[in-house]
Amino acid sequence: MNRIDADNKDLYAIADLAKEFGISTRAIRFYESKGLIAPERVGATRVFRRRDRARLILILRGKRLGFSLRDISDYLSLYDADRNQQVNLLAEKVDERIALLERQRDDLETTISELREIKNLADQRVQKAS
Questions:
Q1: Which end of the chain, N or C, is surrounded by fewer C-beta atoms within 10 Å?
Q2: How many CA atoms lie within 13 A of 113 on its CB side?
Q3: Which of 49, 58, 62 is nearest to 11 (CA)?
Q4: pLDDT in tens, 81-91
């Protein structure tokens, strides 16, 4: 990975982070605008530290797991706070997410079952008409 300064392994350019995580620089700037990450600036250049990179990992993981930016923001706001609070919030949000996904799975199974029933009825009518 190309870092801004080869002597300082804690600094990353926005393009390097975008490439590493397979996202656009625009996405990173969006997370910055939402206050989820706060890179330093050297002139007009954003300089990301190891902490920003770690937060970006958490943001992307949260999004991949289906958490809202609000949930991710709440979690990150406790990043430097009491670890117990952070773990409790995480457990609560994970429970909520699991419950939602289970409801969605049940809805999908019901829909699939209904569609199969409709398909069988349609097939039977086609056979009778033949």
A1: C
A2: 6
A3: 49
A4: 778 888 898 89
